Amino acid sequence: MTDGLPFRAYQEEMLYQVSGEGEAGRQITIHEHALISHAKDAAIGALNRMLPASSFHSGRYRWLPDGVEHDLLYQDEVSGASARVTLFQKLNNPQVIRTVQVDGTQTVHMVLSLKGRLDKYTTFLHHLSTNILPHDPHLTLTIASFDSNTHQVQNLTSAGLASFPNFRWNVLPLGGEAGDSGGFSRGKGLHLGALKATSAPGDLIFFCDVDVLMKADFFRRCRANTLLGRQVYYPIIFSLYNPSLVYPLLDKPVPPVQDQLAVGEHTGFWREFGYGMACVTRGDYLGAGGYPDIRTWGGEDEALYQQFLTKDHIKVIRAPDPSLFHLHHAKECSEGQGVAYVACLKSRANTEGSKVQLGLTLLKAHHGTDIEGVLSKRFYYFWLVPYLGGLLTVSLLTNLLLATLLLTWARRAARVAKKV
Q: Would you state the pLDDT for residue 178?
């Protein structure tokens, strides 16, 4: 089964893949350049010059048992025309499977469930109004609110989006005011939110979380990789480490949230195990049965994902998306969780930082080792380089002294030999 098998995503000279630590993002190799270039040549030929080669935006590829599958997205900034080209390459030249015209103005309906966490929601709204809507106005927002004070959520939304009076948003009350005593259910909120947000089968829905921020170009891939009756997009998001742990090790102050949205081996990891973010059409979402109403934490995401995998006519796209970020937040673990308590602690530890970062923090806590800036270039230039230079100097002096002693010994030996 190839559905759900992750792609390698790339933009310009950077490639993003889900793999071992330290491989969050890296430069494209010479061999990958050759592979990608052949696919680009075939794609431009299939587009019949409708879009110039310079309009390439991003792409992805994955190795399958019988060849390589490519997907390339083109976006002309001048005309606004957009297209995605899918190719399959066996042991010969890439063969075009299909070319799909992408409507860059198609409305994406964002849907999220909310209970509490209003500080995160305020950050989400600020990011949306400051960094997304000025670049992509073809969006809507539906919030399924489980808070008893729905008016507070409405007021926050109205204030946060005041700069965009024509932007369509809606708060769906599911808390105490709606008479729902069953408690928070993310799955129920997303399901009812999707039904409220849109009505046509071909309408596009992006299921999101309040602690997930994106860059504007994410919505290009959302539109390009979702086709009614044929394809759904499950992006692999980049999960950020604890900034208060990461940035001191890089000899940097903790930056504003917007400046933390960067893929790197020291800033976070690909959340390969998460299925919470999804771009689907309304028709395909309902055809898969929708999100189940699960009252405990988690489970609804993977349940829907597995349903899509059972659909023979639906292709599930899984690929790292370098424009989608999960903000760090400390997990609340309680001993009352029973067997889930240990799993919760492990998950919390994994999301705090990398093994190296956690190890360095442990050294500081138990041995008082000064680790500030240890992962920064400044550390290498001002500490490691002089240290290595000192070692080299000592080594040279030692070898010089040894050579002098050997030369002295040899001369003495020669004089003794002449006397004899």
A: 43
Identify which of 172, 233, 223, 171 has the alpha carbon closest to the alpha carbon of residue 202.
223
Rounded Cα gap, residues 198 and 205, in angstroms: 8
- Candidates 7, 47, 14, 45; CA nearest to 29 is 14
More confident residue, 114 or 178: 114
For the segment 359-416, what is each residue's pLDDT rounded down to a tens digit? 777 777 776 666 666 666 555 555 555 655 666 777 777 877 777 877 777 677 667 6
Write the CA distances from 4 to 28, 161, 195, 227, 315, integer angstroms.
23, 36, 26, 16, 8
93-152 tens-digit pLDDT: 788 988 999 999 999 999 999 998 999 999 999 999 999 999 999 999 999 999 888 899
**C-alpha atoms less than 13 angstroms from C-alpha of 49 in its C-beta half-sphere:** 0
Collapsing DSSP to helix, strand or coil, 128 comes out as: helix
Closest CA to 4 of 417, 289, 308: 308
How high is the pLDDT of residue 21? 47
What distance in Å separates the CA atoms of residue 273 and residue 45, rounded to the nearest whole number?
37
> Which stretches of 66-173 are assigned E, i.e. beta strand?
67-75, 82-89, 95-102, 108-114, 139-145, 168-173
d(CA 381, CA 363): 22
Neighbour-count burial for 313-352, b at 16+ CB within 10 Å, e otherwise: ebbbbbbbbbbbbbbbeeeebeeeeeeeeeebeeeeebbb
Angstrom distances, CA of residue 376 to CA of 250, 281, 372? 4, 44, 9
> Residue 386: how many CB atoms within 10 A of its CB?
10
Residue 17's Cβ-count burial label (10 Å; 0-12, 13-18, 19+) is buried
Alpha carbons 142 and 194: distance in angstroms, whole number: 8
**Closest to 290 (Cα-Cα) out of 190, 217, 147, 369:** 190
| 121, 168, 182 from 175: Cα distances, Å | 17, 22, 9
- Cα dihedral sign, 202-309-114-144: positive
Residue whose pair of structure tokens reads 């005011």 in the numeric block: 177
